[in-house]
Amino acid sequence: MEKQAEKLYQQGDKQAAVKLLAQKLQQDMSHADWFLQLSGYLTAGGDFEQAEELLVKAKQLFPETQEIDYNLAVIYFEAGKLAESQKMLQNITDSTLVSDVYYLMAQQSLQQKQLPQALMYALTAYDKNPQLEDNSLLVGDICLQLKEFKRAQEYYQKAVKIKSSAMVLFKLALTEMVLGEKSFQQHFAESQRIDPQYFQQHQQQLADIERYLKLQTKEDK
User: Fold this and answer.
1) Which SUPFAM superfamilies does the entry link to (predicted)?
2) 210 pLDDT above the threshold of 90
């Protein structure tokens, strides 16, 4: 990773980071990690076409680097090119990328509304790398959609142990609310304290859960 560009990016000067890294690559194209770093910045900024062009060039220079294949698969997925994304994943045999591959396969299945298959892939991604917060979160999110609230809670709790963010606490509180556990109030409060903007933006999700609970109450009567 090019440290100066990463420092600029983390400081919020993303355009400067992209410009610096592009200039570095014009002078020296012997670093596969620089290509991956720049493509990551471009993808995060929504510039999928330029990121794709960059990685296609990188693949020509570093044909054995399967991380390039994975990043291309991510770009195709984000750009809505599902078939191309799935095709790129088929090329990957690198054992260090197994968890990432299953994570993306889960997202692909989720996009196609294939929830049971998405859950299977997400659980495999988690099994391959249980220390990655995103893996626990994805399992929890899919279980939430399947209304498997206890199981969703279990994986959100795992995610909280890795990183106690506003998003994780909010999702954990949603499951606790459905399950009738009083701790949901504390976790909602912690989520709001950490990131008031996130908490406000996700009030619709809270309203959806409240409607679900009211419906369940009516059905039980």
Assistant:
1) TPR-like (SSF48452)
2) no
